[in-house]
Amino acid sequence: MWRLLRLARPQLGRLALSVVAGAAAVASSVGLMAVSAWLISRAAQHPPVLDLAVAVVAIRTFGIGRGIFRYAERLISHDAAFRVLADLRVRVYTRLEPLAPAGLADFRSGDLLSRLVADVDALQDLFLRVLPPPLIAAIVGGSAVVLAWALLPGAGAVLAATLLLAGVAVPALTMRSGRRASARVAAARGELSMHVVDLLHGAPELLAYGAADTQLDRVARSDAELTGLSRSTALTTGLGAGLGSVAAGLALWGTLRVAVPAVSAGSLDGVWLAVLVLTALAVFEVVAPLPVAAQQLERVRRAAGRVFGVLDAPAPVNDPARPRPVPAGTPVVTLEAARLRYASDAACALDGVDLRLEPGRRIAVVGPSGAGKTTLALVLLRFVELDGGRATLAGHDLRDYAQDDVRRVIGACLQDAHLFDTTVRENIRLAQPDATDEQLTDAAERAELGPWIASLPAGWDTRVGERGAQVSGGQRQRLALARALLADPPVLLLDEPTANLDSITEQALMGSLLRATEGRTTLLITHRLVGLDAVDEVVVLDRGRVVQRGRHADLVRSAGLYRRLWELELGLTAVD
């Protein structure tokens, strides 16, 4: 909670002003009731009209001021809260960026979405419903007790006791009774979001394999749990409201109990009896929100814990304090005895790998699933750090460069490249937002997208659908390739660019890749061997180690893993 307040430090002035406006609004309501009670009681005695003039003006002032101050309080408090949330959401996203992809293994996408949206939104209650009500209650309630004490000490004591009952004991009771439900709400909301996202993203596969009902049951169970927690929270809220009403009734009864004898004894003017009674009744407006504030406190604390869980997640890679400048031209990229394991008790994902990618050369890295190919790509893109050995760029360790600078030099076309639900033009332009139409056309032509784009109903302005649902797998990969070519990095890394494609589409796309990368420094990571006779060197990985390297023709002729993979691929192609 203190961390949240520190984050809100730039808005503390606005928040304090909102508390002042809120206190003025509630004080206007209490003042309106008290002055109205005096005016009605005094008017019953038929005094001169001038004796009532000040009270009439005060009633108008309090009536108008109540609306103005309430509006100002809502406007200022929400403005401050939304500014804090905007800053916090930027902080969360900024933190997520360096965590991806290696640092997000402990988070599910739906749960992350809930943390970024619902949990951050829940934190606004700290500045709207948790902190202001106690402060306003202390200011207005304390002033009312002082006024009542000045008129009749016994009435002041009764009001103070009942306000403490309603403002301290009742919130403590409701917070205790609703703590379990409030503590679970944020996590339950995250689980529901996670299951819904899985259901929506996996709908085709779930329907195809008849597993949709199972996933729907998970969603229904999560929804039922969240509904039950919300019901429990509502019951606790009702309990707090009921006990608050009981406290208000006790205040009214207690005030009458001490004030009526005082009027009978002549120690209190009868006009002030109405003022004391209606003031006691009106001032309970300030303690009515406190039970809800107590419940929100636990909910905010849990939501803050989930948000700070993201902010405190250790980054797999950190930038140096003084990064080296980006090297000019096309640098040499090397791996020297590179070693990496993801967990202390896990096998090495890379174990002594050596690789040298010189300007203009095209190297393919192949191997079976789990050989370490994707890990090698993550290392070169500075998504993970090596445990041993070195990765260098222009002769200097990759750790000496900022991550963004490394990725400007080593551009990537990944197998799961994301297509946004926008036009073909905007999906390619993502790599270079200020690209001209000529540059876009050139990149599309090199990726052999020209005829396909020309055949589309709206050409370049055709939408591709969510995650590229309106285009084929081959065109999705070509769009990703065009995006990478538009970025025009000195070194191009292609990670499984033909994954999940049929053999005909795969051969056509591989031909496009090889033609587009001719003369360009390229590292091709693939589990298929189509077209590798055109690359300068093939590096074969198995269980994190380099087991073979050489030209395609030489590796096919010699015994070893590459030849077995080649024979297996020929057999699969024959079957196709």
Structure report:
The chain has 20 helices and ten strands. Helix 4 packs antiparallel against helix 7 (153-201), helix 6 packs antiparallel against helix 7 (153-201) and helix 15 crosses helix 17. Helix 18 links the parallel strand 7 (491-495) and strand 8 (521-525). It has a six-stranded mixed sheet, with helices on both faces. A four-stranded antiparallel sheet has the order 2-1-4-5, with helices on one face. The chain has helices at residues 2-7, 12-43, 50-99, 109-122, 124-130, 132-151, 153-201, 203-208, 212-265, 270-282, 290-311, 373-380, 403-409, 424-429, 437-446, 450-455, 473-487, 503-516, 552-557, 561-575, and strands spanning 333-340, 350-357, 362-366, 388-393, 396-397, 410-413, 491-495, 521-525, 537-542, 545-550. The protein is α/β, with parallel strands linked by helices and 576 residues long. The relative contact order is 0.08. Helix content is 62%, strand content 10%.
The residue-averaged pLDDT reads 84
Q: What is the oligomeric state here?
A: single chain
Helix content: 55-70%
Radius of gyration: 35 Å
* SSE arrangement, N to C: HHHHHHHHHHHEEEHEEHEHHHHEHEEEHH
Structural class: alpha/beta
N- to C-terminal separation?
61 Å
Overall 3D form: elongated
Q: How would you characterize the largest beta sheet?
A: 6 strands, mixed
**Total number of beta strands:** 10
**Which strand order does the major sheet show?**
6-7-8-3-9-10
- Supply the number of helical segments: 20
